Amino acid sequence: MSEVKKFAILASVGLLTYFAFIFGIPRALAAIAYVNTSSFYIDVANTVFNFPALSVTTGNTLVVYVRNGTDNTTPTITDTAGNTFTEVTGAVATRAVDDQSRMWVATNVTGNAADVVHVTFGGTVNFIGGQVRQYSGVVSSSPSDAAFGTSGGPANTGTSPSFTTTQADEVVVACVTTVTPTENYSVGTIGGVAATNLAQFPGADSGALACEDRIVSSIQTNQTATINWDSAPASWYMSGLSLMAASDVVPLKPRLLFLRGILKLLSGTFILR
Predict the structure, then answer these.
(1) Going by DSSP bridges, is the β-strand pair 100-106/61-68 parallel, antiparallel, or unpaired?
(2) Rounded distance, CA 126 to CA 229, Å?
């Protein structure tokens, strides 16, 4: 073999090895899993509202859903562990001037055995409720993909606008609240398939709320999410989003062994140590 060909082969293998070493060798996407949830609803006016404590594992993802009935300003979301929550602006739903629901996401979180999520408004508000949902297996950076927000009138089923995901492995989360009366929720569909992990929290006065999800393994194109009630509420509003699964990357030690093997192969000997 000519020296030119040898150089070309060495250069090509060297570049492939470099990128594999720096960026990792991607394998299958990690499996997303639902972990637990925490919910609240209160019709007493205040500026700060606290979710019941939730056991949170380091590295997981928190999804926060908040509905309010007397103020259209955006609250601030914080928690005991000091995690950073980013609003998913595409998930804002508005029923009337002051009735809104919103969603936030915190990824790669710091764990806490009794994590309390705080919702802080700039002024006094009323009819506040929400739900925190914890997931594992979500990508740690920029996880949000699809998002939707909508509202409607009397019906036994609330239906989202159509949405499309960009990755096969994702979790789609849909949350809805009713104004009056307090409803009994039942699981709907996401992408035409029965949703899972429905968690409802009945309101004591003017509403109730519930969230459900579906972990998908194929790209969802022009799909919708639905949630059902046992009787038609006067009105409702829904927020939803999808989160992408994390890439399962080979850790550093196997990459170092891979690099050592390539160097041995290129050297034509097995005397490297």
Answers:
(1) antiparallel
(2) 24
Strands (E) located in 10-50: 26-29, 33-42, 46-50
Q: Where are the beta strands (DSSP E) in 109-168?
A: 112-115, 117-125, 128-136, 144-152, 157-159
The rounded distance, in Å, linking the Cα atoms of 83 and 85 is 7
The 8 Å CB, 24+ separation contacts for 2-10 are 10/266
128-136 and 76-79 strand pairing: unpaired
**pTM for the model:** 0.81
Weakly modelled stretches of the chain, pLDDT under 50: 13, 16-17, 19-21, 204-205, 249-253, 255-256, 269-273
The whole-angstrom separation of Cα 253 and Cα 79 is 35
**CA–CA separation, 175 and 177 (whole Å):** 7
pLDDT of res. 7: 52
Rg (CA), the chain: 24
CA separation (Å) from 132 to 106, 126, 148, 168?
11, 19, 18, 24
Which residue in this structure is represented by tokens 């740690």? 140
H/E run at residue 111: none
Domain boundaries, the chain: 3-25+250-267, 28-249
pLDDT tens profile 202-222: 754 455 799 999 999 999 999
